Amino acid sequence: MVRLTKIYTRSGDAGMTGLGDGSRVRKTDLRVEAYGTVDEANAAVALATCSTPEGSDERAVLLGLQQDLFDVGADLCAPTSPGEKPGERLRVSAEQTTRLEGLIDRFNDGLGELRSFVLPGGTELAARLHVARTVSRRAERLVVELAEREPGGTNPETVKYLNRLSDLLFVLARHANDRGKGDVLWVPGANRGDASGGGS
After folding, report:
1. How far apart are CA 3 and CA 61, in angstroms?
2. Domains of the chain, residue spans
3. What is the sign of the dihedral through the CA atoms of 118, 138, 44 and 72?
4. What tens digit of pLDDT does each residue of 83-117 get?
5. How far apart are CA 68 and CA 56, in angstroms?
6. pTM of the predicted structure, to 2 decimals
7. Span 25-80+89-186 CATH architecture
8. How far is Cα of residue 45 from the mean position of the Cα atoms in its chain?
């Protein structure tokens, strides 16, 4: 059980922070940036949750994602080590990723066929889900870079989970747009005007 009795400690005033294994790094460290962005994605999911009705299926899914994202952050906060025993630390599991795949299939069923890229927008819920999706993509890119720099110190399942998460958020956004009927589609070059009309 986590116990938080004091909110400020002053231990980070010099620009350092502690990782889950007890080591201290700069707050600009890539690992800190990665799990900090996962935290940002969690907050974006929370904002989307506020646009879902109490007791709805979508709300339950988003609340579950928030729990998972805290797991992802905790995983990234503690570098993996060669001698780590199974269950010694909280790690994102393949089962969590597989669960997202099931949700993607479920919410994608019945969506209208896509004939162009989707712009973020439509309903307010869809727009919020797209914000969460893009933050999740940024988190994924940072974790990929972290895994490349520290291949033995990063759980590869975190990358897979974040990849599926952004896919799920995309599908949920379309679902929130009347199952895709209210999607705002990209029209390439829509505002270019004709070739002779060029600007000044």
Report:
1. 27
2. 25-80+89-186
3. positive
4. 888 878 899 999 999 999 999 999 999 898 888 89
5. 19
6. 0.87
7. Up-down Bundle (1.20)
8. 8
